[in-house]
Amino acid sequence: MNNKGEKTRWQRLWSWLKRPLALGIPIGVFLLVLGATSFQGMMVVSNQNAFCFSCHLKMDTIVQEYKASSHFGDGETIPATCSDCHVPHPFIDKMIVKTIALKDVYHMMVGTITKENFEEHRPAMAESVWEDFKKNDSANCRYCHQGENFDLAKQPQRARLNHEKIAARGETCIDCHQGLTHKRIVKR
To answer: Which residues bind heme 1 per the record (predicted)?
Structure first.
């Protein structure tokens, strides 16, 4: 306060700012929590097979091939979902893949890739997925296939011998296991 008992400019400014801050902080925290919850909800929803099937079911063969594979299981208990194989588990890598996947949604929406021309585009898309698997040494395969789920002693002799030599040959899972869940694409 100055000599006349009036508030200074800074005191008036602070008293004016206190009201919005008293309301703004709780509103900001609420919006932050709402945003984080919504974000996490979208991560959960977009990692479920129903989300993937919403577009890929229109492509016919992709979902049917997966359902016929050992990765689908019996239809009730699913040992591996689409995202288990196609979405990295570390957060930053997951966000990168999900951001890049928006181009697939775009191409579906604008009709670049349709049910009629899907098989024509499929080799290039498969090649892209295989390259990603090779770059990260099939990290998503190894996420599940380790420990009890990858006991070499329980494997047939041929598989065991091949798996023991995989690193020495500079190979990764996808080099031998293309076509395990989806049909093997013949490169032209």
So the answer is: 52, 55, 104
The sign of the dihedral angle between the CA atoms of 24, 26, 31, 32 is positive
> What distance in Å separates the CA atoms of residue 73 and residue 66, rounded to the nearest whole number?
9
How does DSSP assign 28-51, residue by residue?
Answer: HHHHHHHHHHHHHHHHHHTTSHHH
CA distance 133 to 12: 62
**Does the model's pTM come out above 0.85?**
no
Contact in structure between 151 and 182 (CB atoms under 8 Å) = no
Phi-psi region of 27 (alpha: psi -120 to 50; beta: other; left: phi over 0): alpha
Q: How far is CA 83 from CA 3, 77, 86, 89, 97, in A?
A: 70, 15, 5, 9, 11
The HSE-up count of residue 58 (CA atoms within 13 Å, CB side) is 14
Least confident residue range of 56-70, 101-115, 130-144, 168-182? 56-70
What does the alpha-carbon distance between residue 115 and residue 105 come to, in Å, rounded to a whole number? Answer: 14
Largest Cα span, the chain? 96
Q: Residue 160: what residue type?
A: R
Domain limits, the chain: 8-46, 56-175
Rounded to the nearest integer, the mean pLDDT of the chain is 84
Q: Which residue has the tokens 């800074």?
A: 10
